[in-house]
Design brief:
Bound molecules: nicotinamide-adenine-dinucleotide
CATH topology of the largest domain: Dehydroquinate synthase-like, alpha domain
Strand order of the largest sheet: 1-2-11-8-7-5-6
Shape: globular
Order of helices and strands: EEHEEEHHEHEHEHEEEHHHHHHHHEEE
Number of helices: 14
Helix content: 40-55%
Distance between the termini: 54 Å
Largest sheet: 7 strands, mixed
Length: 384
């Protein structure tokens, strides 16, 4: 492992599977090779002894275009005969059953075996698709995520949710398949647009607001360095976000909400809490075609507003959340001209709607998310 890398182990409850998340500063071929060797990813161990693995490498074509040097470094990890390289457009339409089937066909034609690897290099789109095909091929082969967007680093590559879309809706078809490893290379972010970078910051904002007063204060003190993409600060917030997501997922891997609806004591016992900002955020994303994480950030400020209005949290909590959102250059509920009329049709389709009630993730305070059954009518409180 190169000296510049930092590694944490993420433990997920399913079979007590543990996998490493490695953050590296640089993407030189030699650095990546060392990380792969250090994690033992080049070989599988089985009854036949050690076997050199081959890999199906799915690469986001937007990333490939922006960073041909990085793609060369990734391709060098395996010799040409050991690689099946497939470029995937970094667009939501790539998350389709049709594309997954096509990729599975290419893997079969290439003769990939049960002990070979799938490597997903890209944002959440390629990660969700790569995890999905890996979970199906030979009833499941290892997947290694190499996320190239900040959102994928802090969120979608962790937790094992995979998905493709259906004409009737997003992420309607999917599996749970924990990765063998996640390798986040910070210099991949250099080519990421501000728009896509901030989308990842929106998810970090959610983790801080819902789960960690410490991360919240850190972001508040270091907002300028976050926006300057300072590697030291990004490493810290990335690892903190991963720790939070992993802890929630570890306790409730399949989103059964075992801790019940009211979570006064355990803020980590229910995966639904990760939906903080998403209930209204999804509607905003759809109604105004906003990137996911940016819409989530608006949703977090709306969750704080509703919580303050129903006196679940003090007004100070709402003020602090609005202030940090602004410092991080995220849009807040006060900046966006939104209306309930535009958003409500999408909220009504939410999987978390029970009768006339939403399982709305609210805040008791900064760092303390709770699920609150909320009548649809109560959403009108958000409009003034
Ligand atoms: N599985 C989960 O738990 C989970 C969680 C959150 C989101 N998601 C999914 O993630 C997806 C969104 O992911 P995303 O925000 O990463 O977007 P994305 O994968 O669509 O990527 C955004 C854009 O950035 C480009 N790109 C990627 N890396 C780049 C780089 N380093 N330099 C330049 N351009 C680059 C891509 O080509 C694309 O155009 C959605 O499909 C969502 O459903 C999944």
């Amino acid at each position: 492992m190169p000296a510049a890398s930092r590694k944490i182990q993420v433990r997920i409850k399913c079979d007590d599977k543990t996998y490493p998340v490695v953050v590296c500063a640089k993407s030189a071929a030699a650095d990546l090779d060392k990380v792969f060797k250090g994690l033992g990813l080049f070989e599988s161990r089985g009854p036949m002894g050690r076997l050199r693995r081959r890999a199906c490498i799915l690469i986001d074509d937007g990333f490939a275009h922006a960073r041909p040097d990085a793609v060369r470094a990734i391709k060098k990890l395996f010799s040409p005969g050991e690689n099946l390289i497939i470029k995937v457009p970094g667009a939501e339409t790539s998350k389709s059953f049709h594309r997954a089937e096509k990729i599975l066909g290419q893997m079969i034609s290439h003769g990939l075996r049960r002990n070979d690897l799938c490597i997903a290099v890209g944002g959440g789109v390629v990660g969700d698709l790569g995890g999905f095909v890996a979970s199906l091929y030979h009833r499941g082969i290892d997947v290694v995520h190499i996320p190239t967007t900040f959102l994928a680093m802090v969120d979608s590559s962790i937790g094992g949710k995979t998905a493709v879309n259906h004409t009737d809706g997003k992420n309607l078809i999917g599996t749970f398949h924990q990765p063998a490893a996640v390798i986040a290379v910070l210099d991949f972010l250099e080519s990421l647009s501000d728009f896509d970078f901030l989308s990842g910051i929106g998810e970090v904002f959610k983790y801080a607001a819902g789960f960690s007063p410490g991360l919240f204060r850190y972001l508040d003190r270091n907002a300028t360095r976050v926006l300057d993409r300072d590697p030291e600060v990004l490493t810290h917030i990335l690892l903190e976000s991963v720790r939070i997501k992993a802890e929630v997922v570890r306790r409730d891997e399949r989103e059964t909400g075992v801790a019940g609806l009211h979570l006064g004591r355990s803020k980590f016992g229910d995966r639904r809490l990760l939906n903080l900002g998403h209930t209204i955020g999804h509607g905003i994303e759809k109604a105004y075609s906003m990137p996911h994480g940016l819409a989530v950030a608006v949703g977090v400020t709306l969750a704080a507003k509703l919580s303050a209005k129903v006196k679940l949290c003090p007004l100070r909590c709402y003020d602090e959340i609005m202030s940090l959102g602004t410092k991080l250059s995220l849009q807040t509920e006060a900046d966006l001209h939104w209306s309930l009329k535009d958003v409500l049709p999408y909220v009504r389709r939410d999987k978390k709607l029970v009768g006339n009630h939403l399982q709305f993730v609210c805040l008791k305070d900064v760092g303390h998310a709770v699920v609150r059954l909320t009548k649809l009518d109560e959403l009108e409180l958000l409009e003034d």
